[in-house]
Every structure is written in structure tokens, then in C-alpha cells.
Specification:
This is DUF1549 domain-containing protein. By secondary structure, the protein is α+β, with helices and mostly antiparallel strands. It is built from 34 helices and 20 strands. Helices cover 43% and strands 11% of the residues. A 6-stranded antiparallel β-sheet has the order 11-10-13-8-16-17, with no helix packed on it. A 4-stranded antiparallel β-sheet has the order 12-9-14-15, with no helix packed on it. A two-stranded antiparallel ribbon has the order 1-2.
Length: 944
């Protein structure tokens, strides 16, 4: 019988040939089947059936031949197992789909839904099996190896230099033996792991670790220390490329210098270093402040940039003029446009140090600085006001702690320590998101904490290594689980691609050379981590934030991408000097901003990179990159110039306690509370005032959608826009004793929708005593038209219902709903929860760490700015506001529009064109058109 085993062996080798048939046939069958939905293309249905039949046949045959190949060839490991299981699953699903198809054709099933679902599932599993097969054939980094930053994983020049060094010496030191071994292991990693690793141990040979190398494989020992000629490994790598036994196969023969390194290693005893193999480039952790080059430049940044220019054959160009610098500085520090009078004063100022004074003044504007930079930190720390996780309480924001930290200019090392080892208010950062339902092992909250810290603070990609050994860095699965264990209250079991490995994690930090984080409790470990991560020796932490700030102010990081801090910087000395200077400033973030902005490099004209590729790769610094306004900057600029874009905020920095809630009549259907129905509702609130004289009485009211307000039977005001808060002086309508507030409210629309009254009244007596009345559940309401004078104090409302509290979740906190002075203010976009308009302009959801936003305009943004109902509504409101403000004077409208939006007067050509549009008697529509044409100008939308 054994004499016929070769037939089975041969059939197994047909697996790679057959496996492509079901892929093509079933995928095409799915597309053809989808095209028949709705009764279309009936003529192709017969062909679709045959594709399914043939695809199923070949799927079964491929799975059978793959099983034979697994038995007769040297394939083993988890990856092989997974490929086999998904291949068999594909065959089973394909067979089931065929059965469902036959049942449908025979009218035993009512329609094609079950068959189509089976076909979709078959193709999905088929795709997974195909990917695993490609990984087996071409290696786990088959897809990622072509990504930017992954091209040069093995430094061939480094190996050549080491070979030359060792050839010239008679004895090799222990340090040199370590280096030699690490180079050989790097050669194994890039040429051999795809067939000889723990995941795919062909011939039972594993070259991934010491035990596997010296154990050998199915054919025996592969290395004889001290004798390369008798070592099977050396024999195989020196065979002719056409030899059947040559290694590695697939035409990827080793280079001559690589073979020589392996030979030298074996000849010198095949020493195995205790050091971890660093397959990928890895930046030094230590930070050393470079010496500054000799230069006439005063600013240290410019000394380094000057030397860089000299090396790259570049010269300094003239700095930007004052108007451009001022606009750039305003937008970068406080996120707002400078006002026309401030621009004129700055341009006419003759002081030599006026730019430094401007920077100092803007950095001292605590409120606007904080509200602008809040967006950067919200992105970076994955902090938001609403979204996934908040509904279930599985997520907590850190806004109050973050706002206070920025306003106080808290040292960065203290901020990091308080994020890692939370104080009250900062614990939301490492809490992570508790997702609804079951998540995989790489998304458990402890792992999220490790991922967030790694990416946001250290510029390290922990996500890849949370599922398997990283394909883009030296991080291993063990390291990521060791890091995540810091935040876990129990021992974590390692999971590779969500499959338990039966191995428990050991608590550790990604960079253990900084110190130990071990502790009996989570709190002890967090404290140890907080002390260790902020050490001055941790150059990675301080390089990362320095690189992020350079990118923020210059449009492109010194290292790109920002989250891959092992990549080579375009100027390593500049990065290390700035990071060292930041440490010496006692981690002062404002110092770092000023240091960059005071440089000539920052004040150069925006560099003209004609191709986006010039910014991403082969980058040469020539000046700041032209930057688009962020979603928040654009919104705030429109609010400054035209009309407030947003009226409500989610976080209020002023700490004023407004306890009023939105209330409405309770709507009940089938014993359940439902949304308010359209129509008119009536509200009453009785209250008693003392006999003391009233010094002042102010009332605030906002109703969605419209209202009429009565006090003690007298009509006081009415309104039909909930965004506009009516601030009323009501002292003359009040009296000692019993008083009454009555409101007639209307909810518009054709279906049930949120509606609410927001009311607050503050009465101050001459005794300085204050009485405040707010809308709350002590108010009463009815949906029936009242009989009699329902606005009178004496009216009997005993039959009326108690109102329902709708909170403020649908409306946010109106910025004008305050008894404090709010003249000239508008809702800063950074304080507003995610809005469709800002989302379209690029504000992220913040469910993940976001370290940079896409600078490229999208079709969605173009459509939103062109035809978006929301944006056009803002322009419409602004048009009516401006016509009233400038008394329908077209000349004043044009002049002020350009001064406020662009910081300059219009040219004669621009003035003439816009005046022609507006005419002598401008209408709201023409003013709106003029606004729009200005807001979409590159001069408005970009930071030059």
C-alpha cells in the first residue's frame, strides 16, 4: 500500500493550483447574483447557478487536496491550522449554499434570501482563507511590508560594516559576538521566518528562537558550532539557486555578505546573545542635547536650521510681513482671527521686538489659548463630550481636568503623571471604552489603556502587538500584554489573534530600562508607572510631544508619521535639542510654543510643495507647510466674522451654576412616556416673594420652538427661536406675596419631536438677599386649552399635570443663558459636542487617539460648504444681522467683510465686483452670496 502513497502526496501538491478556482468562481457568482436583486438581469441567472455549482465542487476538492498536502508535507503551526479550518469551512458553506439554491429552485424555499446569505458568508470565509494562505506562502508581513516606513526593515549597510570590521580582527570580543548574532538573527527574520517560525514550522524547523535553531528540524541538526562546512544550514544557503534543496526558496537567495556573516557566526561558535533582536529600526531612548553649530543666528532653532539649509543647498528667504505673521500667530495660539484695529496697530508698531510681545500677549490670553488648544488635546487624549460608551457609563470624559491643566499651564510631566496615575477628573483617559457586547481580547479596557498611552504619549504603535507580534515594530505580544497588565486587577492570559495561548503575562513597561513598574495592586503599579514614564531619561516621551507641537505649528512633523517615533527624523539634532530645551524649561508647553514661533523658521513664507508626496516622503524643510483651518478654527472664524455658528456648549468653563432644566408637558401613550407631540401646551409656576423691596429682577427664557411669556397676567415677551435667549428686566411686574409665571409654548413639526422650556429668574432684594426661580418639575402644565384666565394668579390649576424634565441633552448649554456679562462672546467650537458640520470638516469622533487630521479637502466638505443647509443657515442669519448693523450700506458691508475675514481692504477689482453683486439696496440673498464667496477663498481657509 505504501507504494501508492506518492499518489496522495502528488494530489496534495495540486492544492495551490486548484485553490484559485473557487476563489474566482464564487466571487464572480456573488457579484452576478447581487446584480439580479429586484428582478434585474434575469438572463444571467443560469450562468450564476453553474458558477456556484463549479465553485462548490472546486472548494471541496481544494479542501481535500489541502488536507493531503498538510499530511504529506512539512506544514505545522497555528497559521496552518487556521488556514485549514477556514478552507474546510469554505467548502462546507459552499455545499450548504448549493443545497439552499437547489431547494429554492424547487420552490421548497419561498425566495432567494437564504441562498444569497449563504453565498455572502461563503465568500467572506473564502476571503479569510485566501488571506491566510497568502500569509503562509509569502509571510505575515506580505501586505504590511510595502507600506511607507516598512521598506527598509533590514539595514544591509550595517551588516556589511560589521563584516568588514570582524574580518580585520583575529579575536572577536563578547560584544562583537552579540552584534554578530543579532545580525544573523535579523537575516533569519527577513528571509526565513515565513517558513520557519512558530506559526509555520516547515520541516519542523524553527529559526525564531535559540531552542529551535539548535534543535534543528526533521532532517536533524542544522548547525555544528565552530564548523560551517559540516552545518546543514550553511550547506543549504550556499547551494545553486536552481537546486531543489536551496534555502531560502522562492527565488529569494541570500546576498553574499549575508552568507559570509552566517558562516562567520558558525565558525566562531554560533554564540547566541541574550539581547532581544531588533528587526526594525528603533530610536535611542536616551536624550542628549546636541551642541549648537557656529552661526550668526540668534535663535537656537535657526542655528540648527541654518546648518540644515547649508547641507541641503538652501538659503534663507525673507520672512513673512507683519499682517501674515499676526494672522498666523493668532490662529496658532488662540485659534481666532485678529481684529482689524489690532492688525492696524501691529503693522504700525515700530518696536523691534513687537513679534515677541505679540506671542507673549497671546500666550497670556488664558481663556482663548485654552479653548483653542483644547481641541488638540481632546484629539490626542481621546476625550469627547458624547459618543460611544457614554450611554452605558462605560466611558468618562476628562474635560474639566484638561481645561484646568491647560489654563494653569500645568507642567507636561505633571499632566502625564496625572493621566497615568489618575487624580479625580483625569481617570477617564485610562478607563477606555467599555463597548456594548463582546469584544476581542485586543480591545479589553486594560489593553486600550496600554494602546492609548503608547500612541498618544510615546508615539508607539501598541495596537498591532495587541493581537500578535507587531509587523511594523519590534514590539511583541508579550510586551503589550505585560504593559496592559499594569492596569489589570488580575493576571492576563496572552491571546494571539483572539486565541488563548495558555501563557500568562508578566507585568512590565515597554521600556523596562527606565525602571520597574511591579506592584501588588493596580494603584501601586500606576504610581510606579507615573514616576518612571516622566523621567528625564525617557527621551521618547519628550521627543514625541515636541514632534507633535512642531507638526501643529509647522504643518509637518520632524518625524512622520507622528505615531511612529522610531522613524528617521529629517533633522535629529533639531528634535533632540528642542526636546532637551523643553525639559530644561521644566516641561513648560507655552515655552515650547514660543521657542518654535520665535524662530525665523516659523516666520518663513509657507513652502510651496507642489506634490503631496513631497511632504510625506523625501521631505526637505523649506518653511511651514500651507495648512487648512481646522473644523474648529473655521467655525470660530465664521462666528467672529458673520454670525455665531453654534449657540450651545457642552462644557462651560465659567463655573456659573445654572440649575434650570428644559421642561415640557408629559406625553403618555399606552402607559409609556413618549416624545412631545406638535401643538400648543400651557405652563404655570406660582411663587411667593417677601415684602422686602426688589432692587433688580432679571429673567432668561428660551423655548423650543416658540413661546409667549406672562407674569401675573401681563404679557411680557414672545419668541420663536430657541437659540436666542431673551434677557428680560421683570422687576416692575413682580409684587410682594404670591406671583405667577405663565408660558404658552408651541412645539412645531409634523411628528413628535423634542421640545422644552428653559427659564430662570433671579430676584435681588435691597437686603442683598437673592431668590432664584428655575424651570423644574415643580411646574405644572396642560395640553388642553384652559378655560378662563389661566395666566392669572388666582386661576385653579389643580387638575394640571406635573411637567417632565427633558434635561439639556438635546440642546446643550446655551452660551447666552447666563446672568453674567456675555457681550461679544460666542460658543467656541472646541466646547461644542460633535456636530455634523464639524464632522464634515474633519473633526474626528475621538473613539480612538487622533494625532493628526487629514489636510486634504474631501467631496463631503465641498458639498457641505456649497449646499449644506446648516452652513447656509448661518450665512442667512449673518446677512440679516449685517444689513441691520450697517444700515443696508453695501460699501460698509464690503469693506468690513474683508477687514474682518482677511485682515485687509478689498482691492479695487474685488470691491467693484462685490458692489455689483450687492447693488444700491442689498438684499439678504445677495449678502449671503457675498459672504459665501469670501468664506471659500483659499486666503480665508488656509494659514499662510
Amino acid at each position: 500500500m505504501e507504494s501508492f502513497n506518492w499518489i496522495l502526496h502528488l494530489l496534495g501538491r495540486f492544492h495551490p493550483l486548484l485553490v484559485h478556482f473557487p476563489i474566482g468562481l464564487l466571487v464572480v457568482a456573488l457579484f452576478m447574483e447581487l446584480s439580479t436583486i429586484g428582478g434585474k438581469h434575469k438572463g444571467i441567472r443560469e450562468g450564476t447557478y453553474w458558477l456556484v455549482y463549479l465553485g462548490t465542487f472546486f472548494a471541496i476538492l481544494s479542501a481535500l487536496f489541502g488536507w493531503l498536502l498538510r499530511i504529506w508535507e512539512d506544514y505545522s503551526g497555528e497559521l496552518v491550522d487556521n488556514h485549514q479550518y477556514t478552507g474546510i469551512a469554505t467548502a462546507v458553506l459552499a455545499l450548504l449554499t448549493t443545497i439552499l439554491l437547489r431547494l429554492t429552485i424547487k420552490k421548497k424555499l419561498p425566495d432567494f434570501k437564504a441562498y444569497r446569505l449563504g453565498l455572502v458568508m461563503t465568500v467572506i470565509v473564502l476571503s479569510v482563507a485566501g488571506h491566510l494562505g497568502a500569509t503562509l506562502t509569502h509571510g505575515e508581513d506580505y501586505l504590511t511590508s510595502v507600506l511607507p516606513g516598512s521598506q527598509e526593515m533590514y539595514d544591509d549597510a550595517k551588516g556589511v560594516a560589521l563584516l568588514a570590521e570582524l574580518k580585520d580582527t583575529d579575536t572577536i570580543t563578547v560584544a562583537q559576538q552579540d552584534r554578530l548574532n543579532l545580525e544573523v538573527r535579523a537575516i533569519f527574520a527577513h528571509n526565513c521566518y515565513q517558513c520557519h517560525s512558530k506559526n509555520k514550522s516547515k520541516g519542523e524547523l524553527v529559526l525564531e528562537n535559540k531552542a529551535g535553531v539548535f534543535k534543528g528540524g526533521k532532517s536533524g541538526i542544522i548547525i555544528v558550532p565552530g564548523n560551517a562546512a559540516k552545518s546543514e544550514l550553511y550547506r543549504r544557503i550556499t547551494l545553486s539557486p536552481d537546486d531543489d534543496e536551496v534555502m531560502p526558496k522562492k527565488g529569494k537567495t541570500l546576498k553574499e555578505n549575508e552568507i559570509e556573516l552566517i558562516k562567520l557566526w558558525i565558525q566562531n561558535g554560533a554564540h547566541w546573545s541574550d539581547q532581544d533582536l531588533k528587526v526594525f529600526p528603533e530610536a535611542d531612548l536616551a536624550l542628549v542635547k546636541p551642541d549648537l553649530p557656529e552661526s550668526d543666528e540668534a535663535n537656537p532653532v535657526d542655528k540648527l536650521i541654518g546648518a540644515y539649509f547649508e547641507d541641503n543647498g538652501l538659503e534663507w528667504t525673507s520672512l513673512v510681513e507683519d499682517r501674515t505673521f499676526m494672522r498666523r500667530a493668532y490662529l496658532d495660539i488662540i485659534g481666532l482671527l485678529p481684529k482689524p484695529d489690532a492688525i492696524a496697530a501691529f503693522v504700525n508698531d515700530t518696536k523691534v521686538n513687537k513679534r515677541e510681545q505679540l506671542i507673549d500677549t497671546l500666550l497670556a490670553d488664558t481663556q482663548n489659548y485654552t479653548q483653542h488648544w483644547l481641541s488638540f488635546w481632546n484629539d490626542l487624549l481621546r476625550n469627547d463630550y458624547s459618543g460611544t460608551g457614554f450611554i452605558t457609563g462605560g466611558r468618562k470624559q476628562i474635560t474639566d481636568w484638561l481645561y484646568t491643566s491647560l489654563a494653569e499651564n500645568k507642567p507636561y510631566d505633571q499632566m502625564v503623571a496625572e493621566l497615568v496615575n489618575p487624580i479625580e477628573g483625569s481617570e477617564g483617559f485610562i478607563k477606555g471604552i467599555e463597548w456594548r457586547g463582546v469584544v476581542n481580547a485586543s480591545q479589553r479596557t486594560e489593553m486600550q489603556a496600554a494602546q492609548n498611552i503608547g500612541q498618544s504619549l510615546m508615539g508607539t504603535n501598541v495596537k498591532c502587538a495587541s493581537c500578535h507580534n507587531s509587523f511594523v515594530s519590534n514590539l511583541t505580544l508579550e510586551q503589550s500584554y505585560g504593559f496592559a497588565s499594569i492596569f489589570a486587577d488580575s493576571v492576563l492570559e496572552l491571546n494571539r489573534c483572539d486565541k488563548p495561548l495558555g501563557k500568562m503575562a508578566t507585568v512590565n513597561f515597554l521600556y523596562p530600562e527606565l525602571g520597574s513598574v511591579e506592584g501588588e495592586t493596580v494603584q501601586e503599579r500606576l504610581y510606579n508607572l507615573s514616576q518612571m514614564i516622566v523621567k528625564r531619561e525617557n527621551g521618547r516621551l519628550y521627543r514625541t510631544i515636541t514632534n507633535r507641537f512642531w507638526d501643529r505649528l509647522m504643518g509637518r512633523g520632524i518625524i512622520e508619521p507622528l505615531d511612529e517615533m522610531d522613524n528617521i527624523p529629517w533633522n535629529a539634532d533639531l528634535l533632540d535639542w528642542l526636546a532637551s530645551d523643553f525639559i530644561e524649561s521644566e516641561f513648560d508647553l507655552k515655552h515650547l510654543i514660543k521657542r518654535i514661533m520665535m524662530s525665523k523658521a516659523y516666520q518663513l513664507p509657507a513652502a510651496n510643495y507642489t506634490k503631496q508626496e513631497e511632504i510625506k516622503s523625501n521631505y526637505v524643510f523649506q518653511g511651514p507647510v500651507l495648512r487648512r483651518l481646522s473644523a474648529e478654527q473655521f467655525s470660530d472664524a465664521v462666528s467672529q466674522v458673520i454670525s455665531p455658528v453654534y449657540h450651545a456648549i457642552e462644557y462651560s468653563p465659567n463655573k456659573e451654576q445654572i440649575t434650570a432644566k428644559r421642561i415640557w408637558h408629559p406625553e403618555i401613550k399606552f402607559d409609556r412616556k413618549v416624545l412631545p407631540e406638535p401643538g400648543k401646551r400651557y405652563f404655570r409656576k406660582s411663587f411667593t416673594l417677601s415684602d422686602n423691596a426688589i432692587e433688580s429682577a432679571k429673567a432668561l427664557i428660551s423655548v423650543d420652538h416658540s413661546y409667549v411669556l406672562y407674569i401675573n397676567g401681563t404679557k411680557i415677551s414672545k419668541g420663536a427661536n430657541w437659540k436666542i435667549v431673551s434677557e428680560l428686566d421683570v422687576a416692575s411686574f413682580l409684587k410682594p406675596g404670591k406671583n405667577l409665571i405663565a408660558i404658552e409654548g408651541v412645539n412645531e413639526g409634523s411628528i413628535a419631536n423634542p421640545a422644552g422650556i428653559l427659564f430662570s429668574m433671579k430676584v435681588q432684594y435691597d437686603t442683598r438677599e437673592i431668590m432664584q426661580l428655575d424651570s423644574d418639575t415643580s411646574w405644572k402644565s396642560t395640553s388642553d386649552t384652559p378655560d378662563g384666565d389661566w395666566t392669572a394668579v388666582a386661576y385653579d390649576d389643580i387638575a394640571w399635570a406635573t411637567v417632565r424634565n427633558y434635561g439639556t441633552s438635546n440642546w446643550g448649554r446655551l452660551i447666552d443663558f447666563t446672568f453674567n456679562d456675555h457681550s461679544g462672546t460666542f460658543a467656541r467650537a472646541s466646547l461644542v459636542k460633535q456636530h455634523p458640520f464639524m464632522k464634515a470638516l474633519g473633526r474626528p469622533s475621538r473613539e480612538n487617539v487622533t494625532t493628526s487630521r487629514d489636510e486634504q479637502a474631501t467631496l463631503l466638505q465641498a458639498l457641505e460648504l456649497t449646499n449644506g443647509e446648516f452652513f447656509n443657515g448661518v450665512l442667512e442669519d449673518g446677512a440679516n444681522l449685517w444689513l441691520e448693523r450697517y444700515n443696508y450700506d453695501s460699501e460698509k458691508i464690503v469693506q468690513n467683510l474683508y477687514l474682518k475675514s482677511l485682515g485687509r481692504k478689498p482691492s479695487e477689482a474685488e470691491r467693484g465686483l462685490l458692489l455689483d453683486v450687492l447693488g444700491d439696496k442689498p438684499q439678504p440673498e445677495s449678502v449671503q452670496d457675498v459672504f459665501w464667496s469670501t468664506m471659500i477663498l483659499p486666503e480665508f481657509q488656509f494659514i499662510y
